[in-house]
Amino acid sequence: MQYGFKAAIVLGLATMAFTAIPSLAQGQGGAKPARPARIAGQPNLNGVWQALGTADWNLEAHSAQKLEGFYRLGSLAAIPAGQSVIDGDGKIPYLPEAVAKRDENRKAWPEADPEVKCYLPGIPRATYMPYPFQIVQGGGDILFAYEYNSANRVVFMSKHQEPPVDTWMGWSNGKWDGETLVIETTGFNDSTWFDRAGNYHSSALKVTERLKLDGENTIRYSATIEDPNVFSRAWTISMPLYRRLEPNAEILEFKCVPFVEELLYKDLEPSH
Fold this sequence. Notes:
- By secondary structure, the chain is an alpha+beta fold.
- It has one domain: Beta Barrel (Lipocalin).
- The chain has 5 helices and 11 strands.
- The radius of gyration is 19 Å and the shape is globular.
- The two termini are about 30 Å apart.
């Protein structure tokens, strides 16, 4: 039930996207074709990309610290230090009454984190989780396929519409602003977090992403967050995305549902 809205349509669009790109649709036997600089007149964003850093731990600046209750894992269970990825003062502008919910989430981590339960990550978190993702761009709609939990979303480039229902990954409408891909996503449920630090949103969330190539192997990425139920103003995160340059770079399968079944359903197991 958590695998998104209209999965069959997404699969069909993904198939069309792949067949629209000769370098991806051709067989494996021949030499690797040169990457075209543009697709249908627009910058070519095709490829496997990944963010580096600690944003998935906490969007705000944070020091290294141990995880209480995991002492047997030693340094393996330590939180790495990280700088803020939030533009301006580096702080998330919570409404005063919303801070308590953030603190409650943080205190209940990791059990309360949707990532632990293998739920779909939402936007923008899917971008900077410690897993690669692939952009598949043809001449029309654009597919984002994420390694984590086989998540995906289609960015509708022409037939824009309001989201028919609220979902984990939202509904994405895109356009080109010169050399920048601009994606506006709404229609979220209120069940995803921005990071492992309990930063959260309501179902009123609106995310406006901007992706612009900076050379051949870097995308300048930003996401502006708006949610009047939780934040006092709009705020923006920004970071580079790096192309995976291995000759055999691809997103692999990480369907994590089987890994969390015992966690989610252990109360239903027969007693021994």
